[in-house]
Design a protein that fits this description.
Elements lengths: L14 E3 L4 E3 L1 H18 L8 E5 L4 H14 L6 E8 L5 H16 L2 E6 H5 L3 H8 L8 H19 L4 E3 L4 H13 L21 E3 L7 H10 L15 H16 L3 H19 L5 E2 L6 E2 L5 H12 L4
Helix pairs in contact: 1-8, 2-3, 2-8, 7-9, 7-10
Bound molecules: zinc ion (2 copies).
One zinc ion binds next to helix 1.
């Protein structure tokens, strides 16, 4: 039996989408992902016509796909400007390869590319940090430091570059995993912070996530079909063990009950207003660095202070 794409009825399918039952050919699949991103962007009103948009470009497949799609969408908005922002944490080999891919994509698309390193911003690389903390027992892994310090770096540099928005490549999977992780940690307050569009605040560039309603495997296939060069190696610092378990759990659920990821995401969307009302958050400025903070010291300063207390020479 010959199978044809459900949309165009002409070409052989390259992708089966279990939660919708569609079989799509290459062209129809690419268009469907782009359409989903356009819908997400307009549903959450992510951009205004004259926005200067910073794309957080790690050089991994998700962020490269995001750059390609936003570059496409932006063509319809001549007054909008796009630039890419890469944070070099200082992870030998792994990050070097990613930065190379990021640079290549920016050259190809003729997009301005800004690279900033942990060494410039904090005075140490993630590798140095990882070596220092490896003997300390506790919940903090290199990833927990990296996440906080990278977010700070992105916000600070995007702001200094005059960006109105900071677009990150978080996918539906990332968002669902993070919200479930917050539940497992008993930190319900944080659920309300996982948002497709974060409210902007003083010194805080508004963050937008155009892939928040696109499953990760579709973003990956998009990057692959577009011929995007992305790295196959994974970060040498193991991700949080619990996140890996949550990812596996959600993927198993999705495989047996297609559509579960979307249902979880929508359930959290409905819960968030109640969570927000119960835990209003007040943002002020960090007493040490002046960056946005929800406590007297911002999260990066709290981490850096505790690190420097333990390792004065870091
Ligand atoms: Zn088709
Ligand atoms: Zn601070």
């Amino acid at each position: 039996m010959l199978l044809f794409c459900n949309k165009c009825g002409r070409s052989p399918p390259v992708f089966f989408r279990p939660y919708s039952g569609e079989r799509l050919c290459r062209g129809c699949f690419l268009r469907s992902v782009e359409k989903q991103v356009r819908q997400t962007v307009s549903k959450y009103r992510m951009f205004r016509e004259q926005d200067k948009i910073a794309v957080a470009l790690s050089g991994g497949k998700d962020s490269l796909a995001l750059l390609y799609i936003l570059h496409r969408i932006e063509k319809n908005f001549p007054k909008a400007r796009l630039f890419a922002l890469t944070v070099d944490e200082g992870i030998p080999h792994y990050r070097e390869e990613a930065v190379k891919n990021a640079r290549k994509a920016c050259e190809e698309l003729n997009v301005e590319h800004v690279v900033v390193s942990f060494r410039e911003l904090y005075g140490f690389t993630l590798q140095t940090l990882a070596e220092k903390i490896k003997d300390i027992r506790g919940e903090m892994t290199p990833c927990s430091y990296c996440g906080v310090l990278r977010r700070r770096a992105l916000n600070k540099v995007a702001r200094e570059m005059g960006a109105d928005k900071l677009a990150t490549a978080h996918t539906l999977d990332d968002e669902v995993q993070t919200m479930l992780l917050n539940l497992v940690h008993g930190d319900i307050r944080r659920i309300s912070r996982v948002e497709a569009v974060t409210p902007g605040a003083e010194k805080l560039v508004q963050r937008v996530k155009p892939f928040s309603e696109v499953p990760e495997n579709e973003v990956a296939l998009y990057a692959y079909l577009k011929g995007v060069d992305f790295q196959s190696s994974i970060c040498p610092y193991a991700p949080q063990a619990l996140r890996t378990e949550v990812r596996e759990f959600v993927n198993r659920l999705e495989a047996r009950h297609p559509g579960s990821k979307f249902k979880l995401y929508r359930s959290f969307e409905k819960l968030k207003p109640a969570v927000k009302a119960s835990f209003p958050s007040q943002l002020s400025q960090c007493q040490l660095c002046g960056e946005p903070a929800s406590q007297p010291l911002c999260e990066p300063c709290r981490l850096l202070e505790s690190l420097r207390a333990k390792f004065p020479k870091l």
